[in-house]
Structure formats: structure tokens, C-alpha cells
Design goal:
Elements: H1 2-49, H2 52-68, H3 80-101, H4 107-136, H5 144-155, H6 160-168, H7 172-187
Length: 188
């Protein structure tokens, strides 16, 4: 009786394992691929972010653009240098917004890191964007992905990044145990 049971059940168990293992590997591979996309996108976006000229333009848009130029002409009415700074900075965040809105990158990776900057740039750019939308008379989609990104970012609590960092830390007791184990291995 046991032999018959094993002969009948064993192939079913093997078949279930044969289906479960590739499925699990496929899910894991998909997750790894998604993280690989995030890493490459983050590297590309942060390469621009490291440039001093980007930060100069960023500071200009946030601090001086509104003082030097009225938003009455929209973005298209800005002088060349002001428009260049505006476009370089605002379209940087628009690119990030497009990647997050369409799910190409995980917004949880970018939004906490750039929270203050996204909100600050949107506040500075908003009057120009709204006026540009009026001047274009179109459907109001001009820089709408960046606007959505700014709203999502503003909704994050200001402690979000600190909370994520704290959540990623191993517990104190576990860390102590690991350090002790590491010390004993080195001294042995």
C-alpha cells in the first residue's frame, strides 16, 4: 500500500517542484531586473545632478528667477539665459517625473532623496508653468508630470528619509551579536 502511494504521489510532488522552482526564479529575476533599471536610471540622473553648473542653475531658478523676471510671459517669454536655466533644471525633474509616473523607476528611491529640491523647484517654476499653459491654450498638460511629482513629494512626511534609514538599520542587539562574532573570528 505504501509503495503504491509513493509511486502515485512522488511524480506529483516532482511536478509541483518542477513548476514552483522556475516560477520562483522568474519572480526573483523580474525583481532583480526592476532594481537594475532603477540603478541605471539613478546613475544617469545623478550624473547630471553632480555637475556644478546644474547646481548654479538650480540655485538661480529657486532664488533669483522670480525676482529678476515676471512670469507674465511664461517660460517662452524668458530671456535666453533664464530660459536655459529653467529648462535644464525643470526638465531634469520632468524626466524624473516621467520615469516614476510610468513606473520605469521606483519613486521610493528618488522622492525621499530629492524631496526638498523637487518641492522648491516646483514652487519657483509654478507661476511660469501656469502662465505658459494659459498662453498655449492647450489641454494644460505642459509639465504636468513634474507637477504630479511635486504633489506626491510634498505629501511625504519631512521625516520620511530618516524613518527609512532607521528602518534599514539592524537592531542594536543583532548588531552587537554580529560584531562580537566578527571579533571572535578575527581573534581566533
Amino acid at each position: 500500500m505504501l509503495k503504491v502511494f509513493l509511486v502515485n504521489v512522488l511524480p506529483v510532488v516532482i511536478a509541483v517542484i518542477a513548476i514552483a522552482v522556475p516560477t520562483w526564479l522568474g519572480i526573483r529575476q523580474t525583481r532583480l531586473s526592476r532594481h537594475a533599471n532603477n540603478i541605471q536610471a539613478m546613475i544617469n540622473l545623478l550624473a547630471e545632478f553632480r555637475s556644478a553648473s546644474f547646481h548654479d542653475q538650480h540655485d538661480y531658478v529657486c532664488a533669483r528667477l522670480g525676482q529678476e523676471h515676471a512670469p507674465s510671459g511664461g517660460v517662452s517669454g524668458l530671456p535666453h539665459d533664464a530660459k536655459e536655466a529653467f529648462c535644464n533644471v525643470v526638465y531634469y525633474y520632468q524626466s524624473l517625473a516621467n520615469l516614476t509616473v510610468f513606473g520605469i523607476v521606483d519613486q521610493e528611491l528618488f522622492l525621499p532623496l530629492l524631496r526638498y529640491r523637487i518641492v522648491t523647484v516646483w514652487q519657483a517654476a509654478r507661476p511660469y508653468v501656469e502662465r505658459e499653459r494659459e498662453l498655449r491654450g492647450s489641454d494644460g498638460s505642459y509639465l504636468s508630470a513634474f507637477e504630479e511629482l511635486a504633489h506626491r513629494t510634498a505629501e511625504l512626511p519631512h521625516t520620511y528619509l530618516h524613518d527609512r534609514i532607521a528602518d534599514s538599520r539592524p537592531s542594536r542587539r543583532r548588531w552587537t551579536r554580529r560584531r562580537r562574532w566578527g571579533r571572535s573570528r578575527r581573534t581566533a
